[in-house]
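User: My instructor asked us to take a sequence, write out its structure as tokens, and then describe one feature of it. I'm not sure where to start. Here is the sequence I was given:
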Amino acid sequence: MTIKLICAFVLAFLFASAFGKFYVPWLRRQKAGQQIKSEVEWHKAKAGTPTMGGVIFILAVILVCLTVGFDGMLHGRFEHIFVLLFACVFGLIGFLDDWEKLKKKENMGLSSRSKFLLQLAAALVFILLMRQIGFVRPHLYVPFVHKTVYMPEWLYMVFAVFVIVGTVNAVNITDGIDGLASGTSLPVFLFFVAVTLAWGRRYQELGIFASGMVGGLCGFIIYNFNPAKCFMGDTGSLFLGGAIAALAFAYDMPLILITLGFVFIVETLSDIIQVTYFKITKRLTGEGRRIFKMAPFHHHLEKGGWTGKKWKEKEIFFLFTGISLIMAIISFIGVYQRFPQ
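Assistant: Let's start with the prediction itself. The structure tokens for your sequence are:
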């Protein structure tokens, strides 16, 4: 099993790093440049940087699932394919959004309503499918205390759809500076690889997918690290969010996302708090006020935060990735004894 996980990583990394050498220049020739939001004026120099770079790691993990994971399919193990297809559906939604942005030559793609309805439908279909094949059950495993809470099936479905859509959009929000979504997602997929090694062969195919994601992201960061040669776009960020959510449910431990996705939760909450506080203060005083200089939180740090220090993109990358790694280690401590070998 360990050999297969290593092969998945190596194959994905080699493919992503090699494919990017041809794909990024091709995107540039196609003038697939990202438009920058007017309120992020200090990012204006990035205007025109190719987007939809997430295709690099998407193709890498597809290759891994169809090669390293082929033996599992011969033995009737399709979990990694289900996760892959689910993530690809979200990637397709992101692609449509990116395509609309490129056509309109602006930073607004699909409407929020359209994206939400598409994500809602994809999440519901995935959970129903995983429930049908018996890979998820209407209960919640509680990490750290190793307890199981049983739920009515309808309530579990509502919870699952909420978590999936929330996770996907949280990762999407985090994708705001060079390499941030890639860097913070790496420890998350490493966590699933470690869990596979701890829990045994039953989870081998899911581990192959997770290891392929680690390799693909490592290869992609070569082109996405500051200064980025390409952005992952919504194509990549929605795929990442879908993959993370799908793995959490496929391993039957969605509650682990509370610690494992800590960075994504902070980013999302900063956005929610900012908008809510602004609306409340505007209604009460006639003048909207802000808690953060700008949301989500990485932009708050870029603009000087509460201390006046203006964080550079590389500093934020290493800070957030480091925090994500620490939370991944804590998460692993909370679950590794669930199925001791």
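For the description part of your assignment, you could build on this observation: The chain has one domain: 2-335. Try explaining in your own words what that tells you about the chain.
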